[in-house]
Amino acid sequence: MRDGSDAGGARIALGAVTVWMGERGGRYPQGNTLVVRGAEETVVVDPSLGLAAPGAERPRADRVLLSHCHEDHVAGLHRYPETPVALHALDLPGLRSLDDMMAIYGYAPEIADPFRRVLVDRFHYVARPDAAALQDGEVLDLGGGVRLRVIHAPGHTRGHCLFHVEPDDVLYLGDVDLSSFGPYYGDAWSDLEDFERTLARLHGLPARHYATFHHVGVIEGQDAFRARLARFAAVIGEREARLLAFLREPRTLAEVVAHRFVYRPGDAVPFADAVERRSMSQHLARLRRAGRVEETEPGRYRAVA
Fold first, then answer.
1. What is the SS3 assignment for 35?
2. Tens of pLDDT along 273-286?
């Protein structure tokens, strides 16, 4: 999630799992890295930008897993050049080359060209064509009773995954980060309705601890998690309601983008227009399918009273 809690350097131990908290509580572009130690293998999940800082400690890893292929989740991967890396098959293309990584975002050239440089210079992107594919339901046995199960949870990206770790009953949520910003589905490989299905499924996934890559860090107990999840999911409906109110008068997509429904007006985010266009186009399309919005003339839309 790119939206622009201070616990940098803190480590939260949950049995075999340790959450390495990023600066500012893992607020973007920082993140919270998961380290899972079994008797036979240690896995690092989502090596964050904090691991790439000069002099930063790097946890030992026999394998690196990625919840998905976004810039902030691969930022520390270059520090593991010889370590096997794996992510869901649907996000695997993003590690083949920088061009393939850029396809995930789908930015127009005026945004894509400078963002390519950001990926390399700030987020240390290095292609890993040797990366292996993870599958939904796959279980990794790390030894000593420590097991990690892959749960495909698309929407944020096509291959976004959660990881459930036993015996400590920790569910790592990746970029279902439970922040007030809400769900992010603003890239070419994002899907609003897939994200909604993921959120509905998450409501029924019990765990003792829930860990996020950004912001929250660790939540204990299903009741507390469900409360945060409900607020997070509600942002989708709030965006849609605001869109319908804005469309009481006929508007173009360009006007919708300029109004800002995901980011705040005035947020200095270079890719904000691209994210608004992708996000709100999905809302607009489904509102039209439901008969709640009509096209009054080519390219101009109005809410149906």
1. strand
2. 999 999 999 999 99
